[in-house]
Task: inverse folding
């Protein structure tokens, strides 16, 4: 069992931003994750007594927990966003068989039919109002986050492609692209309007130093809808998010699962993302992307999730070193998993990955 980190790390958000901006090889490895599943967070906090002295009934317990956990792991940031904006979807529930299983099981979106299938259901849908999203935690972090850490604006944000598929259901969306394009356009427009207000409010907080959009746009072989439809209904939203982020002097990084080869020129030249996250070995390794795109954008994560699940700690450490040998020079790389720290990744493998990154070049 992993017992402790060998190398001490002090958070430094300015160095993290410089790394993402590719301003030369950083002094140390910077780490990044879209998120850690709650079960993984709890397991680490319990193992290392990170919550000692905290009151679970404190209304800001979660913020205090995140600061302790992120600092302990060596991250330079906490993730935070507007809260309280609900998007009703059609979900299914099933048992969770992960090592750190969720007591209430796993949920997934109905791919056949979502809550919006025609104009009547479009008008009936309870669209959330971004102007009413809570900024309670953003305000708290503004007063309590250590000076050497920043907020990455991320969570519930920029789901342009995802919410098209979830609100309609993937199958319904595919049919609508042929038979009801005006309805698809109307949903896309509502999403664009919503997230423009959302991001404008997020950018009011000066502790936000990075904007991180999350929007799965592909599968193993290509984009979920045609590249041309992506250009019409999805990419304009991300372009606007990037424009607003850049106008505020912040980088805009993007998480998207899937094979985006067909729209990478658009993401680079039109949307102008500053970093790409989510890499899967069966699509393309992050080390291969370093040669292809490393002079144009930051590459984030890339230690394949399937690899993290199936291999032992020694193999994980070796892969981290090999990845850093390729990706660390020149900056523009942050170490992390290929997607997120899911509750089926062995916690010791995750901690070994973090530890090897902390040790690299120390």
Result:
């Amino acid at each position: 069992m992993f017992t402790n980190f060998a190398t001490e790390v002090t958070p430094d958000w300015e160095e993290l931003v410089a790394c993402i901006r590719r301003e030369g090889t950083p002094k140390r490895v910077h780490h990044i994750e879209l998120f850690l599943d709650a079960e993984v967070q709890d397991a680490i906090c319990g193992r290392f007594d990170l919550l000692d002295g905290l009151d679970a009934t404190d209304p800001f317990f979660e913020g205090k927990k995140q600061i302790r956990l992120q600092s302990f792991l060596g991250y330079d940031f906490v993730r935070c966003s507007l809260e309280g904006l609900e998007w009703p979807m059609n979900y299914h529930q099933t048992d969770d068989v992960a090592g750190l299983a969720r007591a209430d099981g796993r949920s997934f979106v109905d791919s056949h039919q979502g809550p919006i299938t025609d104009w009547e259901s479009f008008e009936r849908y309870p669209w959330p109002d971004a102007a009413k999203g809570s900024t309670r935690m953003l305000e708290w972090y503004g007063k309590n986050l250590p000076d050497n850490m920043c907020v990455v604006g991320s969570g519930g944000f920029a789901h342009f492609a995802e919410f098209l598929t979830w609100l309609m259901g993937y199958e319904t969306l595919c049919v609508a692209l042929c038979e009801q394009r005006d309805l698809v356009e109307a949903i896309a427009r509502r999403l664009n309007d919503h997230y423009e207000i959302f991001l404008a409010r997020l950018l009011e907080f000066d502790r936000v130093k990075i904007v991180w959009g999350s929007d799965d746009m592909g599968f193993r072989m290509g984009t979920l809808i045609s590249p041309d439809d992506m250009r019409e209904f999805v990419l304009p939203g991300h372009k606007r998010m990037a424009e607003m982020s850049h106008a505020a002097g912040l980088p805009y990084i993007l998480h998207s699962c899937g094979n985006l080869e067909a729209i990478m020129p658009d993401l680079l030249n039109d949307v102008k993302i500053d970093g790409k996250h989510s890499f899967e070995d069966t699509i393309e390794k992050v080390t291969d992307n370093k040669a292809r795109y490393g002079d144009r954008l930051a590459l984030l994560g890339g230690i394949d999730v399937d690899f993290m699940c199936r291999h032992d700690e020694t193999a994980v450490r070796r892969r981290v070193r090999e990845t850093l040998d390729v990706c660390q020079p020149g900056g523009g790389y942050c170490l992390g998993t290929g997607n997120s720290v899911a509750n089926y990744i062995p916690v010791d493998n995750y901690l070994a990955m973090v530890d090897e990154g902390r040790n690299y070049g120390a």
